[in-house]
Design a protein that fits this description.
The chain is about 20% helix and about 35% strand. The chain is an alpha+beta fold and about 500 residues long. The N and C termini lie far apart (about 70 Å).
C-alpha cells in the first residue's frame, strides 16, 4: 500500500521538462576570449592638496586588505605617527555598506601642505570602434588626467566626453590609428533571475580578469540615487571592477558594474550593475550633448502606504502620491494637484513610488504622454508634456489663506499633540520660514497617534482633508466633518524638515 502512495507523491512533485534548468556551460573560455579585448583598464590621476598638519607625514593609501596597508600602519605607529579615524580614502563605508568607489592609491608628500597625486583605478569597455569608452563617473571624477589601457598593452590618453553624477556613468574618447575592438549593449529587461553572466574588469589593479555567476535579483534599490534599478549578481566584483561590463551569454552588455555590498571591500557575492536599458539612453545623451537630458514632471512625491490608500479610497497601495507641485512645471500645466495619486505614467503602471522618477527621466523631452491619476475617489487621465529637468528645482510653497490670528496652543489629546497658529514666537522657536502657512505642532505625546505617525514638534500642518488650515479650530472642524461622514482617517499635509508629506491620521472618537 505504501508504494503506490510514494509514486503518486513523486509524480505530483515532478518538475515539467520545459522548465528544468539547463546545464552550466562546459567553459566560458571562448566567450571570454572574444570579449576581453573590448574591456579596458582606466587609470585617472588627480592633484590633491593636503592640509598642513602637526601629526607627521601621511600614510600612502592602499586598497583595503592590501598587506602594505597594515605594514605602513604598524611602521608609522612605531614611529609615533598615529593615524586617525577608521575610514580610508577609497570610500569604503565599512561594515555591510554599499561601496561604489574605485581603488585609489596616492603617494603623499612627506612635507605637510604640499600637493600629491592620487591615482584611481577602474574598468571600462569600448562601445564604438572609433574609441568611445563607457565607465562609471566615480572612476574618473575630478581627474586631471585619464589613461586607458587595452588588453594588448596599448595605452591611450582619454578625454572626457560627458558624465552623469546621478546615474554614475561617464563617456570617454580615445584615439588610435586603427579601429578598436568593441562590444554593444544588449537587452537587460530580457535577463532573468538565474541567468548566467560574466563580469570582466580590473580588480585591485591586477589587469583584465573574468568572473562568472548568475543574475541574483532585479530592480534593487541600494539608496545610491533617485534612479536605482540595479541588477544584482553573485559574479565576483571587487574594487577596480567599477565601470566594467556585465555580459550575458550572447556576449552583450546587460549592465555596468558599479557597486558591491561588503564588510571588507572585497567581493562576498553581492554586486550591483546599472541595467543596460537605462545606461544606453544616458550614454547616447552624453555622446550627443555632453550631459544628460532627463525628462521632468515637476512634482514631489511620497509612497502610498496602506493607511494612505484606505484614506483615499484606493483598493491597492500602488502609485506615487503628489506632495507638492512645482509652479509653472509640466504637472502644473496639466493641472495635477497636491494629493493626487499618479497610478500610471505613459501606460506604465507604478507599483511603487520610486518607479516614477526613472520612467519620467527616460521619457523624451517635449513628449506628450497620458498620466492616470486618482483624485477625490475617481480615476481620471490627464495629458502631460514632459520638460527637460532643470539644474535647480525649487518647489513653491502652497498658496494658503490669510495670516492666522495669534491664538494660544490647543491640546488635541485624542491625537497626542498640541498645535498653535504660526506666530513670530513659534516661527523663531522652530525656525519656520516667514512665508510658511499653517499650524505648528508644538508638543507631542510619546506613544500617541501623532507620534506613531511620525509627527514631531516643529512640523507644520498645512492642509487637512485637502483644505488649508490657519488655526487649530480649522483642524477641529475638519475632524468633525470626517467623523460625521464616518471616515476612519483624515489626511494631513505636513511640512517638515525633510519637505512636504501626507500623513493619514485615524479620526478619534468625539470625547
Amino acid at each position: 500500500m505504501r508504494l503506490p502512495a510514494l509514486l503518486a507523491l513523486t509524480t505530483a512533485l515532478a518538475v515539467p521538462a520545459s522548465v528544468m534548468a539547463h546545464g552550466a556551460p562546459d567553459s566560458f573560455a571562448d566567450l571570454a576570449q572574444t570579449l576581453l579585448p573590448a574591456v579596458v583598464n582606466i587609470s585617472s590621476t588627480q592633484n590633491v592638496q593636503t592640509a598642513a598638519s602637526d601629526k607627521g607625514p601621511e600614510m600612502p593609501v592602499f586598497p583595503p586588505g592590501s598587506p602594505f596597508e597594515q605594514f605602513f600602519k604598524d611602521f608609522m605607529n612605531r614611529h609615533g605617527h598615529q593615524q586617525g579615524g577608521g575610514g580610508n580614502e577609497d570610500g569604503d563605508p565599512g561594515e555591510d555598506g554599499p561601496d561604489a568607489a574605485p581603488d585609489q592609491q596616492g603617494q603623499a608628500d612627506p612635507h605637510d601642505g604640499h600637493p600629491h597625486r592620487m591615482q584611481s583605478l577602474g574598468s571600462g569597455f569600448i562601445v564604438d570602434p572609433s574609441g568611445i569608452v563607457v565607465t562609471n563617473n566615480h572612476v574618473i571624477e575630478g581627474a586631471d588626467e585619464i589613461t586607458v589601457t587595452l588588453q594588448d598593452g596599448l595605452t591611450l590618453k582619454a578625454t572626457l566626453v560627458g558624465h552623469d553624477d546621478r546615474n554614475d556613468i561617464a563617456v570617454l574618447q580615445v584615439h588610435a590609428d586603427h579601429k578598436l575592438p568593441s562590444v554593444h549593449f544588449g537587452n537587460s529587461d530580457a535577463s532573468r533571475v538565474g541567468d548566467w553572466v560574466l563580469a570582466i574588469g580590473n580588480p585591485f589593479g591586477l589587469g583584465g580578469s573574468v568572473s562568472a555567476g548568475i543574475v541574483s535579483a532585479r530592480g534593487r534599490d541600494i539608496q545610491q540615487g533617485p534612479y536605482d534599478d540595479f541588477i544584482q549578481t553573485d559574479a565576483a566584483i571587487n574594487k577596480g571592477n567599477s565601470g566594467g561590463p556585465l555580459f550575458d551569454m550572447a556576449g552583450e552588455v546587460i549592465g555596468i558594474n558599479t557597486a558591491i555590498y561588503s564588510p571588507s571591500g572585497g567581493s562576498i557575492g553581492i554586486g550591483f550593475s546599472i541595467p543596460s536599458d537605462e545606461a544606453r539612453n544616458v550614454v547616447d545623451q552624453l555622446e550627443k550633448f555632453g550631459r544628460p537630458r532627463r525628462g521632468w514632471l515637476g512634482v514631489r512625491i511620497q509612497q502610498v502606504t496602506p493607511d494612505l490608500a484606505e484614506s483615499l479610497g484606493l483598493h491597492e497601495a500602488d502609485g506615487a502620491m503628489v506632495a507638492g507641485v512645482n509652479h509653472d512645471g509640466p504637472a502644473d500645466h496639466a493641472h495635477i494637484q497636491n494629493g493626487d495619486v499618479i497610478l500610471t505614467f505613459n501606460g506604465q503602471k507604478l507599483k511603487e513610488m520610486r518607479t516614477l522618477p526613472r520612467v519620467v527621466a527616460e521619457t523624451p523631452i517635449d513628449a506628450r504622454v497620458p498620466v492616470d491619476i486618482w483624485r477625490a475617489g475617481h480615476r481620471q487621465t490627464v495629458q502631460v508634456v514632459v520638460a527637460e529637468m532643470p539644474d535647480d528645482q525649487k518647489a513653491d510653497t502652497p498658496k494658503m489663506s490669510s495670516k492666522p490670528p495669534a491664538n494660544p496652543s490647543v491640546d488635541f489629546s485624542s491625537l497626542g499633540m498640541k498645535l498653535s497658529p504660526l506666530t513670530d514666537a513659534t516661527r523663531q522657536k522652530f525656525k519656520i520660514d516667514a512665508q510658511q502657512k499653517g499650524i505648528v505642532v508644538t508638543d507631542i505625546t510619546p506613544e500617541g497617534l501623532a507620534a506613531d505617525h511620525g509627527l514631531k514638534p516643529g512640523d507644520v500642518v498645512v492642509e487637512v482633508a485637502r483644505n488649508p488650515v490657519a488655526t487649530p479650530a480649522d483642524l477641529q472642524k475638519r475632524l468633525d466633518e470626517a467623523r460625521t461622514d464616518s471616515k476612519k482617517s483624515v489626511l494631513l499635509l505636513v511640512q517638515g524638515q525633510d519637505g512636504m508629506r501626507w500623513v493619514p491620521l485615524p479620526v478619534p472618537k468625539k470625547s
